[in-house]
Amino acid sequence: MPNAKDYVDQSMSSVQNTVNTLQQALSNAEKQENKNKIQQAINSLNSAQDQLSGYQD
Cα angle at 5 between 38 and 55, to 5 degrees? Predict the structure, then answer.
């Protein structure tokens, strides 16, 4: 049975995949406004990863 740490680890992997996909979107975005929005989302996800990286079970 998975414990909380397992779910956190799974979430971290999902977040990293999302960041990678958003970075591809960033490189393909044409409007600066859209680039800014994508970058803000990447920054938020990186912050979430930073907060979860120290999770101890």
Answer: 65
